[in-house]
Amino acid sequence: MNYRPGIPRYLQIADAIRHELRDEGERIASEHALCERFKVSRPTIRQALDVLVQEGRLYRHAGRGTFATPAAGGDRKLRVIGSVGDMMAMGNETWFKFVSREVVLLPANIAQALRLPPRSSAYCIVGVRHAETGPFQHVTAYMPLTIGTALSDEDLSKTSLIGAIERILGLPIKLMEQVVDAALAPRQIAELLQIRARSPLLFFERTYFASSGEPVEHAISWQTGRRYPYRIVLSRAERRS
């Protein structure tokens, strides 16, 4: 390959691989083979593959390799999140792998978000949500003990937590408040999402409220952005005459 001056090699390699993707589920050559082909080091190849993973063109399967995503370059199942209903639908379209389920002592800010007294205990679920293209979201969710205990024996792998709260406990979810930021992936979370440490991610803090107005869940999520982008609608307040 003849590299063009002034453009990082990993971007040129990513472009070359991108143009060769043809078949859904196609397995990409090993990092070693790509190093031989492009005459570069393994870190450079990993940077190139990371670009394509972030774009949604490739996904990594632990122990098996790297594969082309369905409909590479144009995900037919792309969902734009713009409502609580969309959040529930995402839970039904994906699956959740648990890392831990336990009772914990709440940090002060999360106790406040759940309207619980300082140093309260709550039920905490930690896990990773997967789509057909691989892991895309790391979630830490806190719930009041009464809610968490009621869900402790339920299979939550193929639903959203708020969907389970509605269906099993009969508590309709009316409102969600969220704060969105951009952040660099901590090493432990990056490993679970199969990306490089300090890769850019979307960072969410969400509080869900039942129709009674009581908070039922506070969730902290780290998420890649390509699979489930977000839509925000802003309105302008009417001027008073």
Description:
The structure is a single chain. The protein has 241 residues and is an alpha+beta fold. It has two domains: 60 residues, Winged helix-like DNA-binding domain superfamily/Winged helix DNA-binding domain (Arc Repressor Mutant, subunit A); 140 residues, Chorismate lyase-like (Chorismate lyase), CATH 3.40.1410. The chain contains eight helices and eight strands. It has a six-stranded antiparallel sheet. A two-stranded antiparallel sheet has the order 1-2. Strand 4 and strand 5 form a beta hairpin. Helix 1 packs across helix 3 and helix 2 packs across helix 3. 28% of the residues are buried.
Percent strand equals 25-35%
Mean of pLDDT: 85
Number of strands: 8
Structural class: alpha+beta
**What is the CATH architecture descriptor of the largest domain?**
3-Layer(aba) Sandwich
CATH class of the largest domain: Alpha Beta
| Spatial arrangement of strands, main beta sheet | 3-4-5-8-7-6
> How do the helices and strands follow one another from N- to C-terminus?
HHHEEHEHEEHHEHEE
Question: Using only CA atoms, what is the Rg?
Answer: 21 Å
Distance N terminus to C terminus?
68 Å
CATH superfamily of the largest domain, called what? Chorismate lyase-like
Identify the overall geometry.
elongated
